[in-house]
Amino acid sequence: MSxxxxxxxxxxxxxxxxxxxxxxxxxxxxLLSPQRCAELQAELxxxxxxxTTAHTPRAYLAYALDSGGEAISTTVPAGVRxxxxxxxxxxxxxxxxxxxxxxxxxxPLTVIGxxxxxxxxxxxxxxxxxxxxxxxxxGPALDGGYYLIGLREPRTSLFALDSEVWSTDRVLAQTRxxxxxxxxxxxxxxxxxxxxxxxxASALLSxxxxxxxxxxxxxxxETP
Length: 224
What we know:
By secondary structure, the chain is α/β, with parallel strands linked by helices. 36% of the residues lie in helices and 17% in strands. It has helices at 3-6, 34-55, 69-73, 90-103, 121-130, 171-181, 198-205, 212-217; strands spanning 9-16, 59-63, 81-84, 106-112, 136-140, 146-151, 186-188. The chain has a seven-stranded mixed beta sheet with strand order 3-2-1-4-6-5-7, sandwiched between helices.
């Protein structure tokens, strides 16, 4: 059944934390200052939302529960639907945001974060193409997680991983296993690198696919 027949609207949901110094990109603090990390997070949000809104008329931004709506709304285009993240661990927050988006009429839904700066519109197109023939689309991250998950239906059980699994190299494998257990078909996209560590920053600095504004903020901060 097509999205139109189901009454849904193809949409993209972005999960993000507000760009506040000391609370974002903390693993990059050995390379960048907390203030630079906040500037980097703001640019990652801006870039991701620009990419998202250029690709779909229905875009959502789910901001972290400890973030103020005003702090994050200044970084997103008008018309983006803001959702407040709810829940304890990442899986609970993902499940709640996905449920909110589907309840608002979205579907199929592609969910991304802001940590894959080499993500392009082609990857988003590929995700929706995968969802024409599969229940789930997954974009593998090089660290064993995923930078994208696409869903034809609100299969929020796929986010019910043990809390100790999140942020490990087992996330993708466990999600695929859970999907198989539920009888869901999964299509994989091209792998991408997430931006989490100084090693990631170094690799992305040498990658010509990294947007220039993000690359400029990845330059190490010189200490006096």
